[in-house]
Design brief:
The protein is mainly alpha-helical. It starts with a helix and ends in an 11-residue tail after the last helix. The protein is 75% helix and 0% strand. The protein is built from five helices and no strands. 30% of the residues are buried. It has a single domain, classed as Ferritin. The longest helix has 30 residues.
Length: 169
């Protein structure tokens, strides 16, 4: 059973994961408007991942006889200066989420809630992957200055990305 403090923290994190889904959907729309369908696909897959993350926490809270309380989701940014700015904001957002997950883990450890800590370990590991992916893509975009043949090659690469839920989920 979750403490009230942990339940509240999980509900806040569920909201952040749903906001992430909404933000990445906005970024996908921006990419579609630029006819960068591969980049748009990257963000569509991100929306699916973020929804999966929210539901993983949602199910955990309910499995622990907790109460999920959904909160309003803020409207995401919709206008960007460039694809490079989109990925700078993506990386910054994932760093924000990492900090939030780490704080939630700290609370679980402080409360000796081993079930929560076990679940959150998966999220800690997931955030390493999220930040690494975004950092590498941002580096590539900066290398090609967000232009030319490099953009077309990267767009084609990102078009192949698919969402595959983890088997243990």
């Amino acid at each position: 059973m979750l403490s009230q403090k942990l339940q509240d923290a999980f509900n806040t994190q569920i909201n952040k994961e749903l906001y992430s889904e909404y933000l990445y959907l906005s970024m996908a729309a921006y990419c579609y408007n630029l006819d960068l369908d591969g980049f748009a696909n990257f963000f569509i897959v991100q929306t699916q991942e973020e929804h999966f993350h929210a539901m993983k926490m949602f199910n955990f809270v309910t499995d622990c006889n907790g109460k999920v309380i959904l909160k309003p989701i803020a409207g995401p940014e919709v206008d960007f200066k460039s694809i490079i700015e989109v990925f700078e904001k993506t990386l910054a957002h994932e760093q924000f989420i990492t900090k939030s997950i780490n704080e939630l883990m700290d609370l679980a450890v402080k409360e000796s809630d081993h079930a929560s800590a076990s679940l959150l370990k998966w999220f800690v590991d997931e955030q390493v992957e999220e930040e690494a992916t975004d950092s590498k893509l941002l580096s590539k975009l900066k290398l090609i200055n967000g232009e030319g043949h490099g953009m077309l090659m990267l767009d084609a690469e990102l078009a192949t990305r698919v969402f595959t839920p983890p088997a243990a989920a």
